[in-house]
Amino acid sequence: MTLQPVILCGGSGTRLWPLSRQQHPKQLLALNGDNSMLQATALRLTCDLHWDDCAILPPIVVGNEEYRFISAEQLRAAGVKPETLILEPVGRNTAPALTIAALHARAANADPILIAMPADHVITDVEAFRAAALTGVAYAQDGRIVTFGITPSEPHTGYGYIRFAKPVRAGVAALQEFVEKPDQATAEKYVSSGEYLWNSGIFMVKASTWLAELARARPDILKACETAFAGAQTDQDFIRLPRAAFEACPSESIDYAVMEGLGHRAATANAAGVVVPLDAGWSDIGAWGALWDIGAKDTSGNVLHGDVQTSDTQGSLVVAQGRLVACVGLRDIVVVETPDAVLVADRNRIDSVKDLVANLKSAGRTEVDTHRKVYRPWGWYDSIDSGPRFQVKRIVVKPGAALSLQMHHHRAEHWVVVTGTAKVTRGDETFIVSENQSTYIPLGVKHRLENPGKVPLEMIEVQSGAYLGEDDIVRFQDTYGRS
After folding, report:
1. Closest listed residue to residue 451, CA positions, set 428, 471, 424
2. CA atoms of 14 and 38, how far apart (whole Å)
3. How far apart, in whole angstroms, are the C-alpha atoms of residue 154 and residue 152?
4. What pLDDT, on the 0 to 100 scale, is given for residue 87?
5. Are residues 407 and 365 in contact, defined by beta-carbon separation less than 8 angstroms?
6. CATH architecture for residues 2-283
7. pLDDT, tens digit, 9 for 90 and up, residues 223-250
8. Does domain 373-477 have CATH number 3.40.30.10?
9. CA-to-CA separations, 274 to 171, 176, 242, 453, in angstroms, rounded
């Protein structure tokens, strides 16, 4: 048997603003430890785990093409070499994502067991998760669809629920029903009955079983995914799906597409659903309150991240990214500080952050989309200051990396090297700029910045001109296929 992890990287997590943003969603954030949520997900099931009669393959990662380079870099930094990264030109929810992964898995391997894991969940007890996954393998190999249900700690109204048949034998129960997010009274009824678990969104199924079930339940999704997969093209380490074909695919979740119908059907040998109860410190971190729930608390019940000082503060979550944050006399408050935005909210009203983000978006505020620090395939830049007709950036280029050969219509640039060595192309000349040296790029001149050294290149860029937007870039050549 072979187990193929499938990491689903959709979603933007607007409830976690100002850390999670459109161009840097929550799966790329380190919210509970040193690893990002994507990295932590990839490390839960790795090739070096030794399970009897079951080999674990490198993961298939399915995600938005906008995040391809930072996703690949985070996986590399975590020591994970994926089977492939499949790029979605548009989001179409989890059912099409799993279907594309299943089609790729069938093409690359015989018929592996897929375990679909959202990249934006936290699991604090990894060994318990692995034990539950191992329990499910035999049932998936036998043609069952395995879902993992979270033992509820409270009658939560923000999760879907799974009803299972008692008793639970050998860590597995028969699936009876998937139900939608309930109201408070219904949630209390579910939890008190002892027959319901939270829906984790984690599934395990053989590739052939999933495709057969989808053909029965949603042949339109299967056909659209087959068309898109047939037109896929390899681009460096990525697989690109054609936009028009994938855009034509209906947007649907695994739950709606297959699992709800499976729960209502009479079980057959090849189409039964089973539930593995999972008690592993799971959270989908759907809002800041969830991070407080799972966080390590001080003696006053506070969860503190970064440079934080408190006095007479209780039950609060305080996250500091760039500055000292000092809190006095707070009760049940959330404070999240980033270099360009600060959120202060009542912990009991934190779900309203999504409405705040919608208002900011309507007002055209760029803080909804991007951080001040922006990651690129060659490194990153931080816009440290700006004003009328000027902008100052701190730029870091990875060893061996290069920006595109480009030109600007509306701005000139001054570059000062702080550390490392820069190889500069300016018009027809190429030259080296060392530490404490500088150069000037006139408006309208083709130029390129490269790091030929073994250490990161750090420099300060001063832009001046009538327009300083990122869309004033004309690319002629690019190592990363963006020209």
Report:
1. 424
2. 17
3. 6
4. 95
5. no
6. Alpha-Beta Complex (3.90)
7. 999 999 999 999 888 999 999 999 999 9
8. no
9. 10, 8, 35, 54
Residue 374: HSE in the Cβ half-sphere, 13 Å Cα cutoff: 14
Burial 348-358 (b: 16+ CB within 10 A, else e): eebeebbebbe
Predicted confidence at residue 236, as pLDDT, reads 81
**pTM exceeding the 0.85 threshold for the entire prediction:** yes
In sequence order, what are the beta bridge partners of 56? 3
Residue with the two structure tokens 């700006």: 386
> Where are the domains positioned within the chain?
2-283, 288-362, 373-477
Given a contact cutoff of 8 angstroms between Cβ atoms, the answer to whether 202 and 304 are in contact is: no
Beta-strand relationship, 373-376 and 379-387? antiparallel
With 0-12 / 13-18 / 19 or more C-beta atoms within 10 angstroms meaning exposed / middle / buried, residue 440 is: exposed
- Tokens linked to 364: 């055209």
What are 248-289's pLDDT values in tens digits? 999 999 998 998 877 555 444 444 789 999 999 999 998 999
pLDDT of amino acid 269: 41
Sign for the CA dihedral angle at 236, 237, 239, 243 comes to negative
The count of other CB atoms within 10 Å of the CB of residue 50 is 8
Give me the pLDDT at residue 483, please: 67
pLDDT tens per residue, range 398-448 = 999 999 999 999 999 999 999 999 999 999 999 999 999 999 999 999 999
Residue 255 main-chain phi, psi, to 5 deg: -60, -55
Report the distance separating Cα 145 and Cα 211, nearest Å: 11
**CB-based burial, 217-253: b 16+ in 10 Å, e otherwise:** bbeebbebbbbbbeebeeeeebbbbbeebbeebeebb
Q: What is the mean pLDDT of the chain?
A: 93
Residue-wise pLDDT tens digits, 11-69: 777 889 999 998 889 999 998 888 999 999 999 999 988 888 899 999 999 999 989 99
Least Cα distance to 98 among 82, 86, 110, 80 occurs for 86
Distance CA 300, CA 69 (A): 41
| pLDDT score of 264 | 58
For the chain, state the CA radius of gyration: 25
| Residue 136 near residue 209, CB atoms below 8 Å | no
